[in-house]
Amino acid sequence: MTELPHHAGGADAAGDDDRRRAGDLGLRIGHRPSGAHNAITDVPGVLVGHTTVREAPDVHTGVTAVVPAGIGPHAPLPAGLFTGNGRGKFVGATQVAELGEIESPIVLTSTLSAFRAADALVSWMLADPANDDVLSFNPVVGECNDGALSDIRRRPVTEAHVLAALASAAPGPVAEGCVGAGTGMVSLGYKAGIGTSSRQVEAAGAAFALGVLVLANFGGTLRIAGTEVPGGANGGVLRDHGSCVVVVATDAPLDARQLTRVARRAVFAMARVGSAFGHESGDYALAFSTRRAAPVLADPELSPLFEATLDATEEAVLNSLLAARTTRGRDGTLVQALPAREVLALIGQHPAR
Question: Which of 162, 166, 117, 163 has the alpha carbon at shortest distance from 140?
Fold first, then answer.
């Protein structure tokens, strides 16, 4: 079995040539500029790590960790959670909703490995001497089902894989597509996985960063710039069901109620790219702020953050598709990557050179 820990700037899986991001192809979403890396790590203090687990042809899975610097039981952060459709296993959801905070990194993985990942987060917490007095802990784990391409019943993700993703979490560029938790994911009829984007936002006369990371595995018919893009050779693979987890980070001072409003916009943004929000879809967004105990923005000042969330989430989903590579998985299932140049021709744009 191939086990590949990736730092935030690690390379994606081998495969199709010339996989690029939406911005590289001239696809502009909204008018606000992105951050330096156009990634969730553009929010100061937010780190990302991946562990990719592969054993061809039957295992294509992994772990992605979003780690706010210093997070832990003694240093929680304000957070809000929104559920678009709740057919999922979002570990820790009720306490996040009740208390409006997170005290754990956010780990993303495959559905049947979510509970091992939660246990691994407990091990991570217990290993820190600063937590010697902690008797309760709320691990946060989101999941999507990679069973179309990976032998999900083997539950190949182990505690070591989760701890490796946490340990490798770093600032800077974030690997996308077939990496970490996104290794075996399919979205909108094409190979997908991890995607990220960010926006620089002005609100209440101050400048803030907002970043999004998605684990895209949801059904529907892809739309780019309002144009439908049929699933082509992939036929009905996850066309009408599937899931998505969106993580939104910002350094804007927001409370849990306001962050829940931000999280709603992240789920709303899935409609822009064609989500079917089907019966079997588990659609979750978790938003957190890296600001602790700061005076929060007034509600009328939130609109720029809402718009930035919509734009960054849309672009993150497109990046998850554009970065992914054609994958042959369990039972010979073949899922093609999105043919970027053909799509650009369809919507009347020319790829950037």
Answer: 117
